[in-house]
Fold each of these.
Amino acid sequence: MTTLHLNPGMIGTVYDVLRGTKPFHRWGLPEAEALTFRVYRSRAERGALERVGEKIILGVSEHSNGHLYSLIETVAHEMVHLRLLSLGMKNWERHGVRFEHLAKAVCAAHGFDPKAF
Ligand SMILES: [Zn+2]
């Protein structure tokens, strides 16, 4: 039983709230209006960041995010990918050293479990 009824506006709101907090507020991430937010069904992934031409889509799986806490954590995770993408990193979709470094700062600031992030 899920307590969330996810919709794209809700994802954008969470994005905006996080964008104003440490460490995101120093990353120069685009405003929510510049992104597309999407709810999708996937059991394999909690969230996804896609680039389709000039469009950046931040998606959250309604199958894997039943609570507000999960939604916040998932959006934060995708925002790390977004940071790598905006830095022009080739491997922005990967969980490499740069990802881990940024993720560590996010987890420390927000109390997420780095092993589950
Ligand atoms: Zn990821």
Note: The longest strand covers residues 55-61.
Amino acid sequence: MIAEYATGEDIWQWRCSAISDAAGFGFSAREVDWLLIEVTGLDYLALHLGSYKEIAKIPLKRSLVELSRLWQEHLENSLPLQYVAGSLPWRNLTLKVSPKVLIPRPETEFLIDIVEVLVQKEPYLQDGVWVDLGTGSGAIAIALAYLLENAQIYAIDTSPEALSVASDNVGFYNLNSRITLLRGSWWSSLDCSSRTTITGMISNPPYIPSGDIEQLESNVKDHEPLLALDGGEDGLRDIRYLVESAPDYLCSGGVWLIELMIGQAGTVVELLQNQGNYKQIEIYQDFSGVERYVLARRK
Ligand SMILES: C[S@@+](CC[C@H](N)C(=O)[O-])C[C@H]1O[C@@H](n2cnc3c(N)ncnc32)[C@H](O)[C@@H]1O
């Protein structure tokens, strides 16, 4: 992912000028350092002390010209820093991102922790086929592949642009033999033989009510893909579909696990109970105490 090399002196000058721009827009110098850590691989201390200034050749994930253009977009139009850098740390991974995919959030990491605890208690869940529905950058699928060493994973998205980013990430981690990328709406790209055979389904679907999108921060509503955000009139359009459709695909005891937004968990539990094919329905909270995840098992 190296785009070009720069001297330490060039990076030092770029940093000074970016810090001064940031101050003009009321942003913190920390943003500049976050960006440079991501793009140059230098650490915070080196940036702070300027100990890199004498280095003749520092690899960059983006050219300084491109970085300057995107940095201006950040200052003037709130382009998220992760899109400026073109990558971000997520769990123990570094993932490529572009405005064609949602920026994976820290809360989503917890979905993987939930699966980790489940497979410790029930090791047979390690095997079989898992699906990441609405894979975006491929974050969940890749983390699952590391966690479930014997599982085969389908990473599915309806957006070809998202799948292209996911494909780069899967390739970067050499997981092409473990993760199959499929384009289609939810389960539609799986063939009939997958029915009642899937060990686990994980999804972080679009769940924001259409009418709330306009109220989101500009860095989200103006730059992240609407397809990744908009969950229909009440935000539950896709979750409702996943409740209804998953029993056709999950094996008995199969895992149904999704992320949702504040205020939706109670309704989703009711939907699962009323559907009739689920058991062991549980709500989990995120770091801030928000009911953010619902786990259920296929009867
Ligand atoms: C909230 S994003 C989650 C992305 C990624 N899994 C993550 O957690 O960072 C929702 C994803 O669902 C995808 N999506 C939306 N509608 C879909 C559909 N009908 N079928 C499959 N994927 C869909 C979007 O393209 C987007 O990548």
Note: The chain has two domains: 4-85, 106-298.
